[in-house]
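User: Let's play a game. I give you a shape written as tokens, and you guess the letters that built it. Ready? Here's round one.
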């Protein structure tokens, strides 16, 4: 028995004889990596939780309706949506809408996978570019928990645009770093493939090309501006030539695609206001944990609306960080210039293409416009704090500390102050994210659809609907015709039956409840035939005046009548006409007709049938009581 007890257990030690399992050894091998993985998982879980609170929004209803209305053809994939050429995004939308419809979790899963890919790729970029150590977690957290990128993981149409572009940007930056260091052509090919991938989802990926040039000039050269530009241009000219060819080819292709008219700013003041809001109100506070307060913007993502005090404090904190890092590490100035240059590119792009309409005063407070800047900002902050991995150590210079600050007490106060600043930024970030989630959970479109689905389930058989628009808070009027109910309900589980003519049609009110149709608009003038009004008989065309003129428009017409028999009739409004069915007795019919004029003309097909009417209204459909 003693011999048996002396035999060691096989699992008492790991393969290396240290008694630790594979997970413990993996953590011990690189603790920074282990913490980074935990941070990525936490950020993904939090973002997914916020996304599940929300639902579809305006643009998403439109894309979903268009996807169900289209075959998977080159014409569909190459159409532009709000001037975005996004064949990759439209392909994903086409597949997802057919597979998932209005269900939430498949879209949240898709966005979470996309964010995970970007997060992992960004951490790998940090490890490749910057000096190793715990400091890598600073730019990583700055990217993972940025409130400015919440739209990309909450609103799937924004995610289809931004997440692939962010991934393409990170992959292209990593490949460019390897190309600059080694000169191997395979890394240049990886750069081109990464940008091409991004261009499949949004034209904004074109900005990756100048970003790579700026990265090379500012972080991989030294000396003054002329020398840096010349060295970067000459040394890596194959890359710039390849990027120029790719960019020009894409632009030629883009301008030959059908698209909406590009907007133009209306004044210099409009541009300056936009730039002040985009950089001063949205970007800088957002990089330091803001905006802390959001403005409700309907079913769409909220707008940045920081408090004045916190906005100015964020500016002060950023300027302090710039001064401290530049004094500590001279190359930090080049990192900040890289960030400034890319911000100028983004601001110039949107100032030239997103101003000149009624929403221009709000454009500078839209966080998604600077979502990709967060990637560049986090990278530049890391470069300013840590320096490049392959930089010489003498890049760091000693900063003389005043005598009064060398005292132990002063050092302790400074350390406590720094911890408090970092804690404040962290708490502010968590507060901004939480308030975004509170705002995002309010969804009029979700409530409207839920009500209509319950109403349709309880509606009697044979209930039919005349097509009308959904409320503006669900899909805005400028999306017409995709704001029509017949478009909106295409992905829904229960779909209304739409007709263009019916005796007792229904419609939905603003809350989504089923109501009988009524018509508001121009009425006919009273007829002169006693106990009849206007007499329609003998197969002759009878002109019936309206109480006012009507412009060309798709109208709904209410026609109440008393008929001596069954027949058909031709109803004309200006140049437009429609054949309708008439039944014996006192009846009514609603139908749709697009036309214009100051009178209607009715011809009963059967000359033996006489019809009396004094109740015709031409106008818009409204819910009745």
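Assistant: Ready! My guess for every position:
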């Amino acid at each position: 028995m003693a011999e048996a007890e002396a035999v060691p257990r096989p699992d008492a030690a790991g393969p290396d004889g240290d008694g630790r399992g594979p997970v413990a050894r993996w953590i011990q091998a690189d603790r920074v990596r282990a913490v980074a993985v935990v941070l990525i998982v936490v950020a993904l879980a939090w973002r997914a939780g916020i996304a599940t609170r929300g639902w579809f929004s305006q643009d998403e209803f439109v894309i979903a309706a268009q996807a169900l209305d289209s075959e998977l053809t080159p014409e569909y994939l190459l159409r532009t949506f709000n001037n975005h050429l996004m064949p990759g995004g439209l392909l994903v939308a086409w597949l997802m809408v057919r597979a998932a419809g209005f269900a939430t979790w498949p879209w949240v899963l898709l966005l979470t996978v996309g964010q995970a890919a970007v997060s992992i790729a960004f951490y790998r970029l940090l490890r490749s570019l910057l000096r190793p150590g715990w400091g890598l977690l600073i730019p990583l957290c700055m990217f993972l928990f940025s409130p400015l990128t919440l739209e990309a993981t909450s609103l799937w149409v924004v995610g289809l645009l931004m997440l692939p572009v962010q991934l393409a940007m990170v992959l292209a930056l990593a490949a460019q770093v390897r190309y600059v260091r080694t000169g191997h052509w395979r890394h240049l090919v990886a750069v081109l493939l990464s940008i091409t991938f991004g261009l499949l989802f949004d034209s904004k990926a074109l900005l990756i090309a100048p970003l790579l040039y700026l990265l090379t000039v500012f972080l991989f050269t030294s000396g003054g501006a002329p020398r840096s530009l010349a060295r970067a241009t000459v040394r890596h000219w194959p890359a710039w030539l390849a990027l120029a060819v790719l960019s020009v080819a894409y632009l030629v292709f883009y301008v030959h695609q059908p698209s909406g008219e590009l907007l133009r700013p209306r004044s210099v003041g409009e541009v300056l206001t936009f730039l002040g809001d985009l950089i001063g109100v949205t970007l800088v506070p957002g990089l330091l944990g803001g905006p802390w307060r959001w403005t409700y913007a309907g079913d769409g993502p909220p707008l940045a609306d920081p408090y004045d005090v916190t906005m100015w404090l964020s500016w002060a904190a950023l300027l302090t960080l710039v001064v401290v890092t530049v004094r500590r590490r001279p190359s930090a100035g080049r990192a900040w210039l890289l960030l400034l240059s890319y911000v100028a590119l983004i601001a110039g792009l949107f100032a030239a293409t997103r101003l000149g309409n009624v929403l221009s005063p709000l454009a500078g407070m839209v966080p998604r416009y600077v979502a990709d800047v967060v990637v560049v900002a986090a990278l530049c902050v890391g470069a300013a704090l840590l320096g490049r991995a392959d930089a010489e150590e003498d890049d760091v210079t000693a900063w003389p500390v005043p005598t009064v600050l060398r005292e132990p007490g002063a050092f302790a106060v400074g350390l406590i102050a720094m911890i408090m600043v970092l804690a404040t930024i962290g708490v502010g970030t968590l507060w901004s994210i939480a308030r975004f989630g509170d705002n995002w959970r309010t969804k009029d479109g979700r409530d409207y659809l839920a009500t209509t689905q319950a109403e349709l389930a309880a509606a009697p058989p044979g209930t039919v609907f005349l097509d009308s628009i959904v409320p503006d808070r669900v899909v805005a009027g400028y999306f017409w015709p995709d704001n029509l109910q017949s478009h909106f309900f295409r992905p829904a589980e229960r779909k209304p039956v739409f007709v263009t003519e019916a005796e007792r049609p229904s419609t939905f009110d603003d809350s989504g409840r089923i109501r009988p149709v009524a018509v508001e608009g121009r009425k006919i003038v009273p007829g002169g035939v006693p106990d009849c009004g206007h007499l329609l008989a003998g197969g002759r065309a009878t002109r019936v005046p309206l109480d006012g003129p009507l412009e060309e428009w798709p109208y709904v017409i209410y026609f109440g009548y008393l008929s001596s028999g069954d027949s058909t009739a031709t109803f004309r409004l200006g140049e437009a006409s429609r054949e309708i069915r008439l039944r014996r007795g006192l009846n009514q019919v609603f139908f749709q007709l697009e036309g214009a004029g100051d009178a209607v003309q009715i011809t009963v097909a059967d000359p033996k049938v006489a019809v009396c009417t004094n109740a015709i209204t031409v106008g818009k459909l409204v819910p009745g009581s």
